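Standup notes
- DV: blocked on the single-chain target, sequence here:
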Amino acid sequence: MSSSINGTGIFNASYSRALTQMRARLDSLSLQLATGQKSQDYAGLGNDRTIALSVRGKLSAVDSYQSNLTQVSLRTNLMMTSLTGLVDIAADTRGDLDPNNYLLAGSKTLAQSAARTRFDTAVEALNVDVAGVYLFGGRDVDSRPVASASEIFDGTVGRDGLLTVIQQRRAADLGADGRGRLTQATAAGATVTLAESAAVNAFGFKLGAVSTNQPGAFGVTSASGSPPQITVQVMGTPKPGDVVRVALTLPDGSTEEIKLTASNNPPAPELVAQANGSQLPVGTLGTTALNDPMVGLVAGDTLTINGQTISVVAGVPGAGQISTTATVDDLMTQIEGLTGVANAELDPATRQVRITSTNGTDLAITGTVGAKLGINGTVKAEELEKHTFQIAYTGAGTVDLNATAQNFASALDGAVKKQATTSLAAASSVQGSRDFFGEPPQRVGSMPPETATTLVDGTATTVDWYKGESGAGSARLTQVARIDSTLTANYGARANEDGIREFMENLGAFAAMELDSNSTLGKKQYGELIERTRPAMAEDGGAASLRAVATDITQVAAFSQAAGERHKTQKATLETMLANVEGISKEEVAANILALQTNLQASYQTTAIISQLSLVNFL
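- DV (later): unblocked, structure below
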């Protein structure tokens, strides 16, 4: 008979549990070694589970921010490329704005044709997209925000384009009689009046202040009344050189001044060149001798005008010569005898020698006499801006006030019509472009445009050049991405925001304006157009506003990049923290497994030996 040790002996329940726990511990350590993780669930982390949950939440947020930053970076980089392209277009166009580079092809210059091509490029830059997401439409990212360049210029069925809007605006500003919606200047006795054609008129010139340098000779009244009217009364004794100035405001908000100068001579032809000398010393008169120190001419001095030379000699003068003892008036008379010279005089008010060419003739003046009088140089015929009116005299030699007023009215009327065909035409084209690109677009209120007096909302009849979102608030806020717990990247843009719109409307105005086929008049119109569109292309003007938009986007990109660098550092730190909480040391786990295996093996061996014991074996 044999017996074994069991029951409450060696193989009791507690010993069995210990072996089971050691086996479970070995399995757990083996799993840790295989996965690199302390536990497969948060419960197994014990008190560290709170830290692990918190760190994982922060890592998830960082991943979300980095995903947003990737999107912001891609979009802002493309936006900066587009905006830089617009700035480059402004610079290239500005380089073409030279009034002397007047190469006309049809009704446009070559520079205008180049601007039209650049306009196409600008439209495409504003229609840039990323995977179908358009970047310059504000909150509307699903469709092209800007109409095609051909639609903008030429219109579509039932909707007019930029060319038509400008043409109608120009006709409305000019008026049926070509006076810019002013009445004809008329004289009643010695009083001249000029008025706006209607009490309320959205078009044409607006009369402003009137001034004179000789209040004793002219009584002036600035614009007043309804419709506004100015008056100029000829009184006293006007003298050559007396000036009356009339200020005009043009449709684009610019101002022009008509300067009328009294003269004893008939008005000069419109297209003449005029050389104005430097101011001679006080006391210089027409009767002053040429060798007087105030004039300073000496024998050997020469004056050459358009290849014709007058020489100063000490003795008796011959052909093409003048004596040093002759007077300034004698020299002026001899100059007037040259081919191509219409008038030469010493202005008694300014003490300047003034030489005026015949109609259409340029003046090229050289020589020591010209240098001393300050008249050397080349003057083109179309550069004359001066308007003169003739002082009329009675048979007794006194000023005929009424006749002089008639001459003044005629000169004023001619000056108004000249301004209307040049500066008004350019200003009207610029304003017409503003009307088209405005929100809402503005149109001439009735047909024919020459008699219209109001502007109306043209939304229903005009091409909608900008088709994106136009809500209230900053354009930057139309696209917002969370890039940190407390930071957002505001990178939205609208093609119709001020900096971009002003650039587009000025580039469009320059490309669209048609010039007069008369080369001289067309060149003058071109110069006025350049004067009005150049500021929008200048680095310190409109292009600066365009660059400001680009700067906004660049700052967002730089700000986002800095946030991305911070997130990289933060993510590395969080991952280290998480590894410390959830991860294991493989060396430590391996050592624990080895020790546990040793313990288990010893326990199993001991158990096996004891399990073989019996009373017989024991005895």
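- Follow-up: The chain has 14 helices and 24 strands.
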